[in-house]
């Protein structure tokens, strides 16, 4: 049996419209297309869904309101008091990651969040933003964040580097978690899909497995968006309240 | 008969709604709480899987970079590797004990003090 497996081909970024500005490649790629679709769909859901503003919401209004309330609850219970101004940011982030993950599950589409550069950019925005908020709110006092209380001075030489490291690792864990989950899931789907294409009647088995994995991937897509958003809230909480 | 039916249907609907409400008031309270708990547990599980590994890899990578810049080859990398292990353990511990991935284990009182 000749196996023709290309499980990683699905992650290839291909330019759809070639644009070069002064030696810089800013082509409109399939990745950019999916991002555009995600943003358009989110905007459509929220704008069209809440347009009528009925007292008894219809399906779309329900979906829009539920997502709003879900994130509002999350921000309220995880980021604590005074985090309300940052709700729009967390909401945008959550919806973007959620839609990107779900859109990627559609066959022949492209998973934006399976690229580390995309997830790292998102995580870096969170990290830099939270750090700025911390310093803006507490000034140089924010540095005390890295000094655990009630610890002998001798131990501080060990603990401060650990605390610093644990702080600077945040954007990495945040981005790698999302990227690795999406990459692994989609690669697995493609591998079993490749098996199915080359084993004739036995294809029932890999296809059945693919269906099961796809169900898991739906869960992972939602869960990873949730984890991304909730960690953003927790980081915000740290910066705002310093504990 | 045709006059009767709407009010009849409405009465049935009202009775049905009441029934659903009394049933519903029982179920979602327990069911949703369970769901939320499960959701959170799942979230934490998916989080810490990667927390430990990334801490070590990033710390070791940083050590390697320091070595290159400062010319102190293997030392920075070795030290940073162990720091990475410590950080990873700390992060996992904090994630599990529900202290979030918070840096600094200051209690709320400490924060009121300053």
Structural summary, described in words:
The complex is a heterodimer of chains A (243) and B (114). By secondary structure, chain A is mainly alpha-helical. In chain A, 67% of the residues lie in helices and 4% in strands. Chain A has helices at residues 30-49, 59-78, 87-104, 116-138, 153-168, 170-198, 204-241; strands spanning 15-17, 20-21, 24-25, 28-29. In chain A, helix 1 (30-49) packs across helix 2 (59-78), helix 4 (116-138) runs antiparallel to helix 6 (170-198) and helix 4 (116-138) runs parallel beside helix 7. Chain A starts with 14 loop residues before the first strand and ends with a helix. The radius of gyration of chain B is 28 Å and the shape is rod-shaped. Chain A binds chain B through residues 141, 144-149, 161-163, 165-170, 172-173, 176-177, 180-181, 220, 223-224, 226-227, 230-231, 234-235, 237-238, 241-243, and chain B through 39, 42-43, 46-47, 49-51, 54-55, 58-59, 62, 83-84, 86-87, 90-91, 100-108, 110-111, 114.
Summarize the topology.
The complex is a heterodimer of chains A (243) and B (114).
Chain A: E1 15-17, E2 20-21, E3 24-25, E4 28-29, H1 30-49, H2 59-78, H3 87-104, H4 116-138, H5 153-168, H6 170-198, H7 204-241
Antiparallel strand pairs in A: 1-4, 2-3
Helix pairs in contact in A: 1-2, 1-3, 2-3, 2-7, 3-7, 4-6, 4-7, 6-7
Chain B: H1 4-70, H2 75-96, H3 108-113
Helix pairs in contact in B: 1-2
Q: How would you describe this structure in keywords?
A:
heterodimer, A: 243 residues, mainly alpha, two-stranded antiparallel sheet, two-stranded antiparallel ribbon, globular, B: 114 residues, 3 helices, disordered C terminus
Strand percentage of chain B: under 5%
Mean pLDDT of chain A: 90
Radius of gyration of chain B: 28 Å
Taking pLDDT < 50 over at least 5 consecutive residues as the criterion, the unreliable ranges of chain A are none
Task: Work out the strand percent of chain A.
Answer: under 5%
Order of helices and strands of chain B: HHH
β-strand number of chain A: 4
Helicity level of chain B, as a percent range?
Answer: over 70%
């Amino acid at each position: 049996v000749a196996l023709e497996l290309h499980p990683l081909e699905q992650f290839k970024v291909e330019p759809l419209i070639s644009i070069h500005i002064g030696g810089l490649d800013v082509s409109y790629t399939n990745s950019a297309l999916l991002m555009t679709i995600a943003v358009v769909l989110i905007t459509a859901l929220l704008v069209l869904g809440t347009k009528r503003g009925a007292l008894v919401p219809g399906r779309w209004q329900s979906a829009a309101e539920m997502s709003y309330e879900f994130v509002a609850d999350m921000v309220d219970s995880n980021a604590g008091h005074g985090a309300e101004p940052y709700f729009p940011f967390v909401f945008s982030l959550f919806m973007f990651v959620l839609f990107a993950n779900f859109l990627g599950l559609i066959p022949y589409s492209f998973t934006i969040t399976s690229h580390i550069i995309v997830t790292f950019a998102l995580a870096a925005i969170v990290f830099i933003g939270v750090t700025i908020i911390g310093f803006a709110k507490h000034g140089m006092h924010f540095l005390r964040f890295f000094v655990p209380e009630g610890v002998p001075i001798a131990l501080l030489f060990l603990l401060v580097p650990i605390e610093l490291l644990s702080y600077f690792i945040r954007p990495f864990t945040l981005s790698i978690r999302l990227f690795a989950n999406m990459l692994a899931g989609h690669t697995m789907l493609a591998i079993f899909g490749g098996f199915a294409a080359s084993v004739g009647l036995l294809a029932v088995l890999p296809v059945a497995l693919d269906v099961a994995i796809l169900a898991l991937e739906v869960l992972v897509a939602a869960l990873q968006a949730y984890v991304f958003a909730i960690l953003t809230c927790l980081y915000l909480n740290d910066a705002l309240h310093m504990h | 008969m045709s006059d009767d039916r709407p009010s009849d249907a409405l009465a049935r609907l009202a009775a049905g709604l009441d029934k659903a409400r009394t049933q519903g008031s029982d179920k979602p309270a327990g069911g949703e709480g369970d769901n939320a708990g499960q959701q959170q547990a799942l979230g934490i599980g998916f989080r810490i899987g990667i927390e430990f590994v990334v801490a070590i890899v990033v710390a070791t990578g940083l050590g390697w970079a320091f070595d290159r810049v400062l010319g102190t080859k293997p030392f920075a990398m070795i030290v940073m590797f162990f720091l990475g292990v410590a950080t990873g353990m700390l992060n996992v511990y904090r994630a599990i004990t529900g202290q979030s991935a918070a840096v600094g284990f200051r209690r709320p009182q400490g924060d009121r003090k300053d």
